Amino acid sequence: MKKLVNDPKNVVTEAVAGFGAAHADLVRVSTDPIYIVRTDAPVAGKVGIVSGGGSGHEPMHGGLVGPGMLDAAVPGAVFTSPTPDPILAATKAVDGGAGVLHIVKNYTGDVLNFETAADLAAADGVEVRSVLVNDDVAVKDSLYTAGRRGVAGTVLVEKIAGAAADRGDDLESVALVAERVIGQVRSMGVALTPCVVPHAGQPSFTLAEDEIEIGIGIHGEPGRERIKLEPADAIVDRLLGPILDDIPFVAGDKVLLFVNGMGGTPQVELYIVFRRAAEVLAERGIEVTRTLVGNFTTALEMQGMSITVLKLDDELTTLWDAPVQTAALRWGR
Amino acid sequence: MKKLVNDPKNVVTEAVAGFGAAHADLVRVSTDPIYIVRTDAPVAGKVGIVSGGGSGHEPMHGGLVGPGMLDAAVPGAVFTSPTPDPILAATKAVDGGAGVLHIVKNYTGDVLNFETAADLAAADGVEVRSVLVNDDVAVKDSLYTAGRRGVAGTVLVEKIAGAAADRGDDLESVALVAERVIGQVRSMGVALTPCVVPHAGQPSFTLAEDEIEIGIGIHGEPGRERIKLEPADAIVDRLLGPILDDIPFVAGDKVLLFVNGMGGTPQVELYIVFRRAAEVLAERGIEVTRTLVGNFTTALEMQGMSITVLKLDDELTTLWDAPVQTAALRWGR
Amino acid sequence: MVNDTISLDQLTGWLTRFRDLVTEQVSYLTELDSAIGDADHGSNMTRGMGAVVERIQASPAGTVDELFKGAGMTLVTSVGGASGPLYGTFFLRVGTTAGPVGTLDAPGLAAALRAGLDGVVARGKAEAGDKTMFDVLAPALDAFDDALLVSSDISSAAGAAYSAAQTGRDATEALLARKGRASYLGERSIGHIDPGAASTSLLFQALAEILVKE
Amino acid sequence: MVNDTISLDQLTGWLTRFRDLVTEQVSYLTELDSAIGDADHGSNMTRGMGAVVERIQASPAGTVDELFKGAGMTLVTSVGGASGPLYGTFFLRVGTTAGPVGTLDAPGLAAALRAGLDGVVARGKAEAGDKTMFDVLAPALDAFDDALLVSSDISSAAGAAYSAAQTGRDATEALLARKGRASYLGERSIGHIDPGAASTSLLFQALAEILVKE
Ligand SMILES: Nc1ncnc2c1ncn2[C@@H]1O[C@H](COP(=O)(O)OP(=O)(O)O)[C@@H](O)[C@H]1O
Ligand SMILES: Nc1ncnc2c1ncn2[C@@H]1O[C@H](COP(=O)(O)OP(=O)(O)O)[C@@H](O)[C@H]1O
Ligand SMILES: [Mg+2]
Ligand SMILES: [Mg+2]
Ligand SMILES: [Mg+2]
Ligand SMILES: [Mg+2]
Description:
Helix content of chain A: 25-40%
Largest sheet of chain A: 6 strands, mixed
Order of helices and strands of chain C: EHHHHHEHHHH
Structural class of chain A: alpha/beta
Strand content of chain A: 15-25%
Bound molecules: adenosine-5'-diphosphate, magnesium ion
Shape of chain A: globular
Radius of gyration of chain A: 19 Å
Radius of gyration of chain C: 16 Å
CATH superfamily of chain C: DhaL domain
CATH architecture of the largest domain in chain A: 3-Layer(aba) Sandwich
Distance between the termini of chain A: 40 Å
CATH superfamily of the largest domain in chain A: Dihydroxyacetone kinase, domain 1
Strand order of the largest sheet of chain C: 1-2
Oligomer: heterotetramer
Strand order of the largest sheet of chain A: 1-2-4-3-5-6
Number of helices of chain A: 8
Shape of chain C: globular
Number of strands of chain A: 14
Number of domains of chain C: 1
């Protein structure tokens, strides 16, 4: 394992300190407990938005803190959900009197720790609503399982919920918009190489020189199936099929098409993927009206990508276009 | 070699097509010859700015095309400078009557091909000025060599020259500002892993599981020395020493600190690097007043990073802060 | 000799021994989690139980409820992930039910452990056969209760619980996961022991060992 | 028999043979460039000469200047990198100097090649010992000229040029690069043959072979 780290135990604290130093115009960093909060929090009268989860998915979530998006992000250890205490502290730090929305990816650990934090916040008089993001179609949804995982679609939920809070929606309305996005966003990913958790020092899985993992999660957890490497276009088709058939997306839909890099994929490859995905959508009569391409929901240095499609309507489009000012996503200001 | 590509021969054409489709609000793409130009080019009365070079360094340069930065980017084959014809075509496409600045990285191939294009453009009545970026302190400068390489500092030159053109400076003034940045910017990089050129299919060098290459170029070309892996802080110190001693940067200087990912490095590692670099600068009494962290000048999937320091003055700071609207760098609009 | 009570010291020893076992087996637990999870269960449990024992050593508990509530809170605030809140809730409930006493008798211990299991179910909604720590915890406590019907000897009840825990742990191998991260694998989760089931089996191993040792 | 002229057909054959040689040796050229450059010289030369020969086949040149100017333009517009403009300029100048003729005599060919060399120097500013294609081109043309002082036989002059080219190529191994990408390596460029020198040696191999064959 070769990494630009000092003591693996300090990866998160040092990275968060560096993040705070690099983006002091946007965020303040609390070190004990660890969370990242926008400089001007709490914003009086505005619904606060908090997200978080294991580290290793950067820029999600710290890079998404700022006006128009998250009020705070709570990073846990690498690939391990944060404990309730920093979530609670961040929640209190962003409560401007209008309550706080927790945006939680659907993993048992995240769900349980955010749940505890929400209970504790409520006990302290902070109104909290939680939404669960579960956009990954690689995993079959079922009442009898932990359900689908939350992956790159989370970025879109956070942007749009952030815009709703920014325009002054109340907690219930912000939560409803977030839930509407969750209902209309679907994703699926592929890995070409594994990732290495710093304190583990070993790849969490191995892939032969000609193998790829379809339906990979964002923690290097095994996916849907392991197949031989194929041309990019064929891989895109394999991911888009289950995504489009799920809601389903149909001719005439307007969508946001998001090609997300897993951290170690060259940008040329992401655009080769985008090209094919846009082509397939056009063939199906689905209109791509908004786009996003880049490393947003990563799995450390994993090579691979995910495709996310979000069905847009006028309101969601307006909220997507609204100004945002974060380290990773910025426009309109 | 595992890559998300179709035929390796088509990597650049397909990626550029995807880029154009994803960013149709910002750019138009010409396919024969291949170049990327802002939608509203030529902007009448404004100095046009063209850059380019081998592909594989994305988002540089295509991701830097848009208001406030480049008017056009000309991507060659992967790691091979473009030929004069697309450079000429792009130059003509962005000439709004005020002439065109070529921002060229100092590689023999880039220099020669841009030179030919400039000659041809002049013959066609377009006034062209060229500046050569050579910020890499890993290579000793000398009258008797090809001189220093141009690396990540190029992004800063392009941003600031773009802002000068945007505020209405004439060709000579834009060129002078660009040259001032070139005089005050220094960089050095490190590789942990090699990169694989798609049509080669093999890494262009190999590094043992415990080796890193100090002073790596952005084409996977060998660097200054090969050493055993060290903690991140020690590596940062090795890069910053030669950078700071070069101009030199001294106590009281205000600088922009730029930590650039080589394409395959997780963001947590870039921020661990940033943290140490900021610490060293603070120890030396050098004030970091602007920052940039991320994958901007990449070498495909190479793991590693480079550090760039630019000495700022009030004018350069104002030009850095000026609005910019490109796929990779955007603020103020 | 029949041990029909368990002392605060012994219970403290139980937690310490559990810390030792998860630390010894950190790689084994992480390997199990690599196969069907995210390769952190070993480091999660080691970090959490390390913090628990450190806290106990820094300020020893005066009563059983203090001991377990402290352990539970420490796990909740130092582990994260799924196991942090689940093990944390387990010990919190054990402590609350045990109350501010210095010693537990056999039925007292059984009731406290049962409350812990109820807490795990309340948080995680796991049912029998979902391939989780529940599939060790539930049969182990049943075996513990059954043994107490025959004799009030905590030591032999703990032995019975440990043996049921091992059986439960091994039985998770054949199960299809329906809770936690492993559930994302569907059919591919079959053929691997559940990491949380394995660490819970270590919990009963620690209890059995600490009572035999005395 | 003395060949004291070279025909358009032979010159066309020269370029075709050069294409064949760089294509055969694509991996060798790229390997040389991996060691001290960026691993593309083989593919650059193959792509460029492939385009040159395709163009010739699609529309054969009527005169020597048409042939070489076409080849030069094709290299300039299809290769990129350092070798594209340098080889491109070489052939452009060869063509311009040769003029609109159907055949070249020995002094005419020598003058055209010398003009090509001058073009390379004008573009690349290389001097003797900089470890570039210059270190093959210059001694090869010197040998060519020297041979013509003795005999007007182009074939033996080409043989002499090729042998000087090989010597020049091998001599680049010991040199420290002072131009092009390899110069960034400083001392570490020593011990490797320059890729451009190797491809230029193939250029003279092609000329020698095409004349012997006839
Ligand atoms: N809903 C649940 N109920 C009971 N136990 C669960 C549940 N979800 C997960 N677990 C247990 O947690 C273990 C995983 O713990 P750990 O790896 O530390 O957390 P994470 O899954 O968040 O990485 C699983 O092996 C399983 O035994
Ligand atoms: N300034 C120069 N003058 C003459 N030849 C040069 C010069 N710079 C580079 N070369 C030649 O070009 C060769 C490299 O060509 P190539 O690999 O195709 O281009 P690039 O270096 O742009 O990748 C070198 O081996 C050298 O012989
Ligand atoms: Mg985990
Ligand atoms: Mg090259
Ligand atoms: Mg786990
Ligand atoms: Mg080369």
